[in-house]
Write a structure and sequence with these properties.
This protein is of the alpha/beta class. About 55% of the residues lie in helices and about 10% in strands. It folds into two domains: about 1-105, Up-down Bundle (Four Helix Bundle (Hemerythrin (Met), subunit A)), CATH 1.20.120; about 115-305, P-loop containing nucleotide triphosphate hydrolases (Rossmann fold, 3-Layer(aba) Sandwich), CATH 3.40.50. It has an eight-stranded mixed beta sheet, sandwiched between helices. Strand 6, helix 11 (about 275-285) and strand 7 form a beta-alpha-beta unit. Helix 1 crosses helix 12 (about 305-315), helix 4 (about 65-75) packs across helix 5 and helix 6 (about 125-140) runs parallel beside helix 7 (about 155-170).
Length: about 325
């Protein structure tokens, strides 16, 4: 009886997430699906049509390399045939999943206590909201979490973290507006060691990747963190806003050089028709993708499943 109850709860949870994922990628899958449907209704598959399909894939920000890979797979043995839209979408879903499979890795918290997570990204990418969802998950797992309010320039970010701390029982280390963020990180980690905390999550100010002085501050924060624990930060999560499209590629490159990004969180997939950018990033950088966000709810930050993502992107049920 208990087994069946657990199984039905699992099915319900999966279907709930699938609904949010397909809903979140609706703008992308609709744009792609409309192009494929209209093309395949005209004539049998030929090289010219294949070029048009490739262009439709590139418009989703899938990237040139991945788009070429997908169209090559569609072309194999299919010229002068009449594949259905769903057959083509299935090939797209399968090829996207193959690109993403190597980078779909959970965030593993182990090997250090406290385990220090530095969360970085540009203004408005969703860092503080992502931290709130993450601390909620970790607290639910029974982990003792300390939050460092390192975005000392934005009072709203500090207040947001304090609210998450109250909700989850996590301790929040904060300072007055404009305080040195590196010093705050030092204090948060030192205090967490004393308190026996399991995880420290440090928020940072949003910074544009082309602002040299701001990236210098981030480098300083990493150096200061290493003074408390030379192995820290143990995870550096770059939060990317899917709606920025190709600009996300330069963010990954610059933040990677500055702070040693170890994994990615992609947010706001529900706000873009260019959800393929995740595939382009995976193809170019090969960085682990830990979570994707398709909404504001606490359950909208979920471990990344390449197969589900591929099917949702292609518009398959």
């Amino acid at each position: 009886m208990n087994d069946s109850t657990g199984e039905s709860a699992e099915i319900k949870e999966k279907s709930g997430w699938w609904g949010r994922l397909t809903g979140g990628l609706k703008r992308t899958s609709s744009a792609l699906g409309t192009s494929i449907d209209s093309l395949l209704n005209k004539r049998p598959l030929d090289p010219a049509m294949l070029d048009e399909i490739e262009e439709a894939l590139i418009r989703t920000d899938l990237g040139m390399e991945a788009a070429a890979r997908v169209t090559d797979a569609i072309a194999k043995g299919r010229f002068n045939e009449n594949p259905t839209p769903d057959e083509v979408k299935t090939i797209i879903a399968d090829e996207v999943a193959k690109v993403l499979e190597p980078v779909a890795k959970p965030l593993v918290i182990a090997g250090a206590k406290p385990f220090v997570i530095l969360v970085i990204g540009v203004n408005g990418s969703g860092k503080t909201t992502t931290i709130g969802k993450l601390v909620s998950k970790l607290s639910a797992e029974g982990r003792k979490v300390v939050l460092g309010a390192g975005d000392t320039f934005r009072a709203a970010a500090v207040e947001q973290l304090k609210i998450w701390g109250q909700r989850t029982g996590a301790k929040v280390v904060a300072r007055e507006p404009g305080a040195d963020s590196a010093g705050l990180a030092f204090d948060a980690i030192s205090g967490a060691k004393t308190d026996g905390a399991d995880v420290v999550i440090i928020d940072t100010a949003g910074r544009l990747q082309n602002r040299t002085e701001l990236m210098g501050e981030l480098e300083k924060m990493v150096r200061v963190i290493k003074k408390v624990d030379e192995t820290a930060p143990h995870a550096v999560l770059l939060v990317l806003d899917a709606t920025v499209g190709q600009n996300a590629l330069s963010q990954v490159e610059v933040f990677g050089k500055t702070a040693g990004v170890t994994g990615l969180v992609m947010t706001k997939l529900d706000g873009t028709a260019r959800g393929g950018i995740l595939v382009a990033i995976a193809q170019k950088f090969g960085l682990p993708i830990h979570f994707i966000g398709v909404g504001e709810g606490i359950d909208d930050l979920a471990p990344f499943s390449p197969k589900d993502f591929g099917r949702a992107l292609a518009g398959l049920e």
